[in-house]
Amino acid sequence: MTATSSPKARLARLASALTFACATMAMAQVVVVPPDPQIGSSNPITAEPPVARPHTHPCVVQLFDNLAFADFTPKVFNYTPPSACPGPWAKVVFTADFTVSAGRQFDRTAAFYLGHASIYYGTTAEPRKTLSPSWHVERDVTDLSAIFNSAQTGEANIGNFVGVSGGVTYDGIIYANAALEFYPAGDDNRAPVTPDIVVPVNGSGGDAGTLNTTSSQITQSLNLPTNVERVYLDVIAQSQSNDEFWYFCVPTDQASNLLSYGNTAFRETEIWIDGQPAGVAPGYPWIYTGGIDPY
Known about the structure:
Elements: H1 7-26, E1 59-69, E2 75-79, E3 89-100, E4 109-114, E5 117-123, E6 134-140, E7 152-157, E8 163-165, E9 168-170, E10 174-184, E11 268-273, E12 276-282
Antiparallel strand pairs: 1-10, 2-7, 3-6, 3-10, 4-5, 4-7, 8-9, 11-12
C-alpha cells in the first residue's frame, strides 16, 4: 500500500516543522563546558584555579537555570536554604555557566545579588557569526554565609541589548545557570569563622553608583551593631564607557577620540567612614572581550 499526501497536508507538516524549529531556537540552553580546557576550543577560560573543595558531598541549590538575558531588566529568582545541609558550612561555593548565542553582541557586565549583597560580578564573552562561546565561573562565598541562612529573593542583572542600533543588528542572547554548593562541616572539615551579618552597600539590586570625576562621591548610610569587633568591606571598581582605556595614559587632547578621560593613568577608589579616610582600593584594568585587538 502506498501512502500519499496532498500539497495541503505537506504544507501543514512543513509549517509544523518550522514552528518546532523556531521554538527550539527560542529555547536555547546553556552549554556546560568540560572542567579542563579543550585544545582547539574558542571558548574563554579563566587563569584562576578552581575553588578548592572539601572531600564531602555538597547540597546544591539551583538559583536559576537557562535564564535568558535579552534586555536590561534584572531577573528575579528565589532562594531557599538547603534543608539537608544546615549551617554552619565548611565551605560555600558559587558556580555559574554561561553561553552566548552565535551572532553579533558586545560584552556585558554580569552582576548577581542575593538579598542585595553581591555574590558574583564579572563580564561576558562576545560571540561571532559562527561561534557561540560557553564558559564556567566559580567563587568561594563562604564569608557570605550569613545571607544563606534564610529564604530570600535575588536578582541576576546582565543588561543586554537585542535589536537594531545604528543600522547594526545585535542578536546575541546570553544564557546563564547559577547554583550554590553547600559543603557540610565535620570533624575533618571544620566550619570557619565567618561574619555574623552581611550588610549590602549596593543600591536596590544594583551597583552602588557611578564615579565620573575626581570629586564624585557615592554616599550611603549604614546601621551597624555597636559591638562590632571587625568589619570587612568588599570593593569592586570597574572602568566603563569613556574611561574604559584609562590605563593607556593618552594625551588629554586625544581622550575623546580614544575613549578615555586622559589626565594620567592613575585611578583609585578612596573609602571614607564618618568623614575619616578608611582605605584605598587601587584601580586595575578591566580588559573586555573587544577591548584590545591584537591585529
